[in-house]
Write a structure and sequence with these properties.
Two copies of one chain form a homodimer. In chain A, the strands form three sheets. In chain A, strands 5-2-1-9-10-11-12 form a seven-stranded parallel β-sheet. The first copy, chain A, has a three-stranded antiparallel β-sheet with strand order 7-6-8. In chain A, strands 3-4 form a two-stranded antiparallel sheet. Helices cover 37% and strands 17% of the residues of chain A. Chain A has twelve helices and twelve strands. Chains A and B meet through helix 3, helix 4 and helix 5 of A and helix 3, helix 4 and helix 5 of B.
């Protein structure tokens, strides 16, 4: 089995390609739930849903999140009663949140509900939330406020200066059932080109996950989310400075540190190759824009090749 | 203040008229919550919402329940995940249920949430659920099944033979805050032309409400839900046989028994007048079809007149 650490849009782009070259039954994706939020009393899991809708063929392909052919009748009506209009939920999307919330209230763990949802979408890979426990990415601003990640990101457009990013609740969280087993059995661990701080970082903040990856014999290969000092799509470049990391292919590799064995960087960052190799990493250079499925499949193939090379050496 | 005992459609029809002749601030409507049901984890209050949407101008005027210009995107999507398709919720309607459920989960009592909702609709009268506690109208069938009222009514189209109707949970239920005070202060108590068993009966099944009405000096005047041995609209004739009551203007008057002081019957039932008077009731005859607002206002005026006459005598 391949284990994939995944955030939202960047991960979904990568996975679209990976599933073209690997049997979905051999994939366990560990998804970020730090961005999860309760809105109108409903449990929203933005990153899990972005992956589900993308692989299930229900994604809005323009914005790369939310549902295609979406309508907003419920949210429009909700404005009559409550003021949470900064986060707009579409009608089709809401069905997922309503179902998930109902199941959670019945006592079903998030990992189990997520399996039900991916199955309903005909998805063959296993998508596991990093944890079934309530954890929330919390942004502490310079002016001393504590914001839910979505409040910081969506409501305040990432404008406030950030002092610190913490995964609230992490100290008491357990990896979801299956996460540690999958890592222990992994041929390789792949890190998607997702936000290193608030996507991958929050997965690794669940006690036991980082340790399991460090302790496994599987090579760990990531795809750099930073291309030419910026980001192709999404928000993979944000908040790196808040954790003292440089916004570059090298900066992210350094940030992951001893976790990483191999690193796939973009052609425009080829000049970073030598520096990254000096960190002790296997470096591969590819066109990593992930802007269509063939490209994503090619990038995935490169990552698997790097993993196979490292495995062969061990 | 006038206190009005109300079910769904029949009550909404009557109230449309009553609010034309009485200042809404002088009206307290006690609504049935025995039909309430949790669907997809959401708390649905069909009778309260029928009243709210009718008085607020949001009702589907054809079917007399649910929202005008309704769409069903969420329910269509929910079918992907769950099988509760026997009860269809529209998108606009769902906004109300989502808001109500979120507030209830925050610990806000149903009566308070209901006030928020009616205020949001610009409704001036006070709509109180009979109780804030969980009660459920339960239909025990001849073949020994115990069905939620909505399962019996909507899913099974009222086909099973009924042994008994009970308000499950009633023994531990308390009248919602304000209910007993309103009854104690009432100039008159009006009983809408609603189902005597599953609408009015479930209100009266909340311990303390029937006793408060019997103990008050206010005249109690009802409008017969039965016209010519049938019902104009809705389901006010159903389940009367299950409680041993005849489906007639007289039968319902007898069923209410000592609770009632006055009874408004339809012109087609004029021949019942003498029998009903023999029961000790003031009888008024009117055209009670309630099929438009002027007619509803006329019927309401007749009911208030009967109440005033009885009050004058006391």
């Amino acid at each position: 089995v391949y284990v994939v650490l995944a955030g939202g849009i960047g991960a979904a782009r990568f996975l679209r390609g990976l599933v073209r070259i690997v049997d979905q039954r051999d994939l366990t994706v560990i998804g970020n739930v730090g961005d999860d939020i309760e809105l109108h009393g409903l449990h929203v899991s933005p990153d899990l849903d972005t992956i589900t809708y993308t692989l299930g063929g229900g994604i809005d392909t323009e914005q790369e999140w939310g549902r295609a052919q979406e309508t907003f009748t419920v949210t429009d009506e909700l404005r009559r009663y409550r003021d949470e209009s900064w986060f707009t939920l579409g009608d089709r999307d809401l069905a997922t949140h309503i179902h998930r919330t109902a199941r959670l209230r019945d006592g079903v763990p998030l990992s189990h509900v997520t399996a039900e949802i991916t199955t309903a979408w005909g998805i063959g890979l296993r998508l596991l939330p990093a944890t079934d426990d309530p954890v929330r990415t919390t942004v502490i601003t310079r002016d001393g406020r504590s914001l839910h990640f979505q409040e910081y990101w969506v409501r305040e457009h990432a404008a406030p200066d950030v002092e610190q990013v913490v995964l609230a609740g992490a100290e008491h969280a357990l990896p979801a059932a299956g996460v540690l087993d999958a890592i222990a059995a992994a041929r390789a661990v792949l890190i998607c080109p997702s936000n290193p701080v608030v996507s991958i970082g929050t997965i690794l903040a669940v006690p036991g996950i980082r340790e399991a990856i460090l302790g496994s014999h599987a090579p760990v290969v990531g795809v750099s989310p930073i291309v030419g000092g910026g980001v192709v799509r999404g928000m993979a470049d944000r908040l790196l400075p808040a954790v003292g990391a440089e916004v570059s292919a090298t900066g992210v590799a350094r940030h992951y540190g001893p976790l990483l064995d191999g690193w796939v960087i973009d052609r425009v960052d080829a000049d970073h190759g030598a520096t990254i190799a000096e960190l002790g990493l296997d470096v591969a250079i590819a066109d990593t824009m992930l802007d269509d499925v063939p490209n994503a499949a090619a990038v995935a193939a490169v990552a698997l090749e790097v993993a196979a090379t490292i495995r062969g050496r061990r």
